């Protein structure tokens, strides 16, 4: 009967460790998210570039301000979309933003719901299929504001608000939009104990003279009264159409004439 | 300048004025009550009453002009914890007697070189956050849910409108009646009229309440990212300021933090300019313990009662919120316990 020598044991252990260690070390949060893995596909995420801005600590998990932007300038390539995930939410998908040449600056701010302390993940995909990821840990505490009664809820999709800058040709201009909508998750109970049905805005689109410039798909983790700040780079003067579409089939729109200075 | 930066700078300016005024006049609810109850000297208490009147008339004036909607502030709650709001007031009042002054007063004193106040402030800020979102928060939320009492209305104007008064009358009547009686109470007192320092203090600090409503409500107005309507209060803001020191890279600088900084700097400037800055510490460990207990009770009580002697006594009161009247009664009761009776503390 022969026992493995201590050296063999150690070698075997080391081999086992080597074999198992890389996946453990490289287990970024996006790898545990099916929709994020699908986005990344076979690509290898690249390092710095994608910046995710969130407060370290938030005492109001129902509206956490978030900014995501891609900083480097790519040669012969551009960011096509940025996707946000909240790993600790019942629905991890938060939102996806699609950029075009008329929305060439990949930077978006919004407000999101985080139901506990967790890791927020952003994935950026370029037209050529390159991928960047970024993660940020956020601590969510119970609300500091004490008892607040339910406010009377204003009519959904009423009152779309859009603020436009003075655009200059070829330069990105900051656009801010807000629309009244409860963004009911379908998980919350109403005052009578009945679960309130899911009722959310699913898509937001900006078209310049009929051509889509910027598009956002929204999920229940986007806060009530969705707020979006992004950049448009109009190439020519024309009509801008802002459209919000909710899952009941209703839509709201806002039209504006774009002038370039 | 963005609207949020503008609000932050206004917080600093209002804080500077508050700090300098507090340092020069000794404006303080606790000192007012103590002198009234123990020495029969009513000047400081009536200066506080004057501040209440000015804050009320100014704030309701702003609201009736439609510039700010005071209902968006945190004071006019739809329901009230019948246990925590009065209990918080009592804890705050007793803590104020232990620490020999409220949170705002401690900031002013620290700016004048009083290191005892430093201990009070640290304990106050930590205890406030423990109660708001820390280890005591689950207990607070549980008790709040257990003892919530729906209110017939959020504030006095809404209550009176329920009896059929027109909106203008429902706001004007309680404002003028309460404001008028407080003014009469303050100004009918000869010794107060003869002490310009006292009444000026009340006048200026009272006027800072509507000024702060204006800063957060009008300057901070934005369709997309409105600043939360707020005015002077010191319990949560002292906690916010401590948190900001530790987490500045991940938190936004808001009105509450610049307000606290302003009070400290305003008092420091006034103390240095008038050569009244004196370093002071604890004579005994017992006094230190007393200050720590006072700060802690004020932090916990101030959060439970949604405000301190300034936050509820002036700011909450200026909104005529029903909750504020309960909290103020609690604060007065707690202070009374600390000043006279079986639980009275020695005067220091």
Characterise this structure.
The complex is a heterodimer of chains A (261) and B (348). Chain A has a single domain (31-144, 153-258), classed as SoxY domain (Immunoglobulin-like), CATH 2.60.40.2470. In chain A, a hairpin with a 2-residue loop joins strand 11 and strand 12. Chain A is globular. Mean pLDDT of chain A is 86; it is low at 21-26 and 144-150. A nine-stranded mixed beta sheet of chain A has the order 2-8-7-4-5-12-11-14-15, with helices on one face. In chain A, strands 1-3-6-13-10-9 form a six-stranded antiparallel beta sheet, with no helix packed on it. Chain A has helices at 6-25, 34-40; strands spanning 50-53, 57-58, 64-70, 79-86, 93-99, 107-112, 118-126, 131-140, 161-163, 173-178, 201-208, 211-218, 227-232, 238-246, 251-258. Chain A is mainly beta and 261 residues long. Chain A has two helices and 15 strands. Chain A is 10% helix and 39% strand. With 348 residues, chain B is mainly α. Chain B has one domain (3-339). In chain B, 70% of the residues lie in helices and 2% in strands. Chain B has helices at residues 3-25, 29-39, 43-64, 84-99, 103-111, 115-132, 137-147, 156-162, 167-187, 190-193, 196-219, 235-247, 255-273, 285-304, 311-318, 322-339, and strands at 79-81, 148-150. Chain B has a two-stranded antiparallel ribbon with strand order 1-2. The longest helix of chain B has 24 residues, at 196-219. Chain B starts with a helix and ends in a 9-residue tail after the last helix. The A-B interface holds A 54-57, 59, 65, 141-150, 161, 163, 176-178, 227, 229 and B 74, 77-81, 132-134, 137-138, 141, 144, 148, 154, 223-225, 236, 243, 247, 249-252, 303, 306.
